[in-house]
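sorry to bug you again but im stuck and you know this stuff better than me. theres a chain ive been looking at and ive put its sequence and its fold in token form underneath. id like you to explain what the token line says about the fold, in plain words if possible. anything you notice is useful, everything is just below.
___
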Amino acid sequence: MSKGLPEYFPLQRYNISPEDVVRLILRCEPEDIRRHVIITPDWKEEEFFPGKVEDIEPVSGDHLFEVTYRDKKISFIRSGIGAPLTGDVVLALGCTECTNLIFTGSFGGLADKLIIGDLLLLTESTGGDGFSNYLNEGELTTTAFLKPAYPDTGLIAILEEHAVSLSEEAGVALHRGSVFSTDSIVAQFHHLDWLIGQFGCIGIEMETSAVFNAAALVGIKAAALLEVSDVIPTRKSLFSGRTEEDRQRYKHIKKSVLSRIILDTLCDERLK
């Protein structure tokens, strides 16, 4: 798996360097990015990282930070919501030394066994996004639409080890399954029954298909660990139905369990 943007991206033709891509998309220099990266659409650093983090330093604006954990430096990026923003961030990371990437964020549960705050180790993401169709060489097609995208097998195996251990210790349910990546929050609802029946999705979100496809293209190992923010079948959606107890459980697990799993994974000595 080669590292970097593919040759059929005609950057030189338009007088664009890989460094230019990093400066525009990530708003930093390539050397500002570490080998291990956490991406989340919109979670703020202060609501994600536990007290055991040794240091959090801003690198660029309110979207890029350098985290020190167990004496290791990790880049934390808030990409913005949706496949286009997050997918472009992953492509830009292909122009840096980033090697391992863990995506994290929330998802809507499509199974009534899920509880707000539960964690999901993502095994597959079905592409309902438009972004992924722009990645292939040649004429535009819909070859990536409604097709599965997968995490890196080596990285997800290490992530699973840490997720099982820490979730059991905290008494938090850890699920494994697939999601559907959508481009719309409002227009998803009249498709949900079909998506569940057709793909067996346990949840729905907006970025993971783009993350997996873009990461594979630029030679970055990527995996995803998500948290249940709402459970649509039990009428606890982003729009209505969630209680204050639900919200507090979600916040607590994010900071005390989810973040630790990801940090411990990226500090694992087996990662190259």
